[in-house]
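Q: I'm building a small set of examples for a reading group on sequence design. Run inverse folding on the following structure and report the sequence directly after it, with nothing in between.
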């Protein structure tokens, strides 16, 4: 195939590609995030792409008489043009993680996502693949398989993190968001979304950060009603607007999950926040087993000490987790009564179950209980009272006051503000340093005055003694 290469210097960058397909969204999103000047994206229809790219594939980038094709090559080049861009990661390990997620998206997600939505967009899979297949069944199976992959590989990685890699947006988030955008908009209804609440939360965060609606020219909404996959009322178009023929012919790989090494340290327990702070308030975890640790805000015994309720808090959120232990089903039940009650610390292994109590969706059925720290119920100061402890009283127990709801909430807000401030300045190239303070006081116990003087040259002539007057 002959192609034409621009020889005159171009003013800016021009990208050519299909309309709103996965690869086009990647290129446009990255160009927007790195604030590329004079960037223009032009939609190519039909076979026009063969005359502007060496291999006849899209997208392709033209700039200064040069031609660059291949989605990964284009987006990495655009990122390299930006100064101090950390979309590819901060260090060797995070860069490897970004690459890992990018390959996972290309190999395991994008093809399945495309096959899932093509019939809903009026595109015939038979004409695209040149094979005799049951289009509706193929699309359904692709959507089902994709949801299973998301549930086993993506969902666990986002249980405690906002982003896929590190604490900020990277290329990993961009490529997965662009790949999953069509299925979250057209295929996965609320029932499917409830199976992957962490991924849904992450998806909504990313589409707002990358401003996907501005690129698409429309508001991005999550699917509310499951599709029927019925082409009877749709007009099948001859050409696909969202993916190239070559990508449809590729066979999707079966995913066995990927090994996610998010960081060197991994919390050996599940926080109360990660269980309760979900769109369904923990209902999606019913039937699953976790290990939680924390301090008891209250401990109550019923039914002649054969049933115990522990209001467990670990400081990760305002709410506490109600633990239900029974003498017949909970190992270590006898230790609960001797722990001292309020203020004792516990490690509990149990199962999330639906709660019959109004106002809470779930509770924690204890299978194993271990006492990590006992308290003296007489001496422990944070006893249960009708009114909250006064702030003056909490001043006297600084080591225990973070366990209260008030000081715990203040500490979490302070942490969020501090992290946001550091993140803001770090992203803009500032360094956080502890500089020496110049004060009027010696501050070393002697109370001497600290002075700034211009008399030192005269002291050399006076055998090192500073003159008292000029």
């Amino acid at each position: 195939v002959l192609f034409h290469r621009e020889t005159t210097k171009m003013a800016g960058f021009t990208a050519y590609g299909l309309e709103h397909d996965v690869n086009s969204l990647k290129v446009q999103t990255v160009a927007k995030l790195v604030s590329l000047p004079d960037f223009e994206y032009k939609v190519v229809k039909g076979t026009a792409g063969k005359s502007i790219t060496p291999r006849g594939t899209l997208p392709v980038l033209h700039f200064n008489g040069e031609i660059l094709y291949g989605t990964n090559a284009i987006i990495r080049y655009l990122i390299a043009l930006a100064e101090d861009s950390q979309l590819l990661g901060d260090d060797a390990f995070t860069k490897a993680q970004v690459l890992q997620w990018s390959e996972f998206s290309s190999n395991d997600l994008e093809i399945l996502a495309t096959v899932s939505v093509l019939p809903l967009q009026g595109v015939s899979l038979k004409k695209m693949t040149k094979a005799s297949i049951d289009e509706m069944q193929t699309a359904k199976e692709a959507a089902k398989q994709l949801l299973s992959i998301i549930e086993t590989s993506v969902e666990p990685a986002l249980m405690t993190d906002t982003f896929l890699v590190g604490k900020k947006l990277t290329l990993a988030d961009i490529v997965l968001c662009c790949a999953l955008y069509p299925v979250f908009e057209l295929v996965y209804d609320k029932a499917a979304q409830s199976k992957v609440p962490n991924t849904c939360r992450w998806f909504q965060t990313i589409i707002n950060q990358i401003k996907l609606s501005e690129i698409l020219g429309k508001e991005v909404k999550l699917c509310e009603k499951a599709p029927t996959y019925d082409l009877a009322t749709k007009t099948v178009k001859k050409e696909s607007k969202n993916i190239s023929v070559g990508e449809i012919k590729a066979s999707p790989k079966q995913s066995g999950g990927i090994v996610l090494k998010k960081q060197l340290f991994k919390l050996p327990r599940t926080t109360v926040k990660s269980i309760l702070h979900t769109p369904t308030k923990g209902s999606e975890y019913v039937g699953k087993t976790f290990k939680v640790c924390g301090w008891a805000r209250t401990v109550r015994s019923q039914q002649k000490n054969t049933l115990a309720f522990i209001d467990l808090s670990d400081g990760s959120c305002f709410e506490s987790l109600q633990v239900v232990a029974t003498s017949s089903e909970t190992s270590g039940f006898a230790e609960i009564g001797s722990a001292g009650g309020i203020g004792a610390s516990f490690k509990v292994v149990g199962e999330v179950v639906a709660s019959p109590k109004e106002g809470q969706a779930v509770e924690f059925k204890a299978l194993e209980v271990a006492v990590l720290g006992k308290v003296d119920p007489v001496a422990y100061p944070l006893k249960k009272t009708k009114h909250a402890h006064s702030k003056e009283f909490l001043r006297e127990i600084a080591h225990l006051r973070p366990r209260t709801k008030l000081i715990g909430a203040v500490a979490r807000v302070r942490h969020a503000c501090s992290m946001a401030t550091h993140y803001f300045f770090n992203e803009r190239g500032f360094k956080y340093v502890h500089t020496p303070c110049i004060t009027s006081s010696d501050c070393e116990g002697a109370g001497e005055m600290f002075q700034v003087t211009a008399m030192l040259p005269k002291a050399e002539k006076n055998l090192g003694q500073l003159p008292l007057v000029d």
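Strands lie at 13-17, 39-43, 60-63, 66-69, 289-302, 307-313, 321-326, 345-354, 362-373.
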